[in-house]
Amino acid sequence: MTDPTIFGKIIRRELPADIVYEDDELIAFRDIAPQAPVHVLFVPKTPIATLNELQPEQAAVVGKLAYAAAQYAKREGFAEDGYRVVMNCNEHGGQTVFQLHLHLLAGDHLGRFGTPR
């Protein structure tokens, strides 16, 4: 893993994180600046900067991120109430860490989505 981002440092255990899930391909941890009562980031261990850089042979990683997030929501008991998953891509899409990742947000009514600032 040669990812120079903060997520790469978390994966390599160079930085601490509140890790809630990990397997051979993914890691998930609580966001340090949560935007909802529950805000967990699901990150592939393979460095992929943005969704735009995803290669055909890597497409399954998006499904694995979504599946892991859904399983976490079920395990934590908020799947029935509802949650949101978001993947930002590049600056105008709100991406601030350039390593592909999925945000899981839950724990409150999240309101409408997609209104520009």
UniProtKB/TrEMBL annotation:
Membrane-spanning regions, if any?
Answer: none
The active site is formed by H101 (tele-amp-histidine intermediate)
**Residue ranges occupied by any HIT domain in the UniProt entry:** 6-115
Query: What GO molecular function annotations does the UniProt record carry, in alphabetical order?
Result: catalytic activity
Q: Which InterPro entries match?
A: Histidine_triad_CS (IPR019808), Histidine_triad_HIT (IPR001310), HIT-like (IPR011146), HIT-like_sf (IPR036265)
This chain's protein is named Histidine triad protein
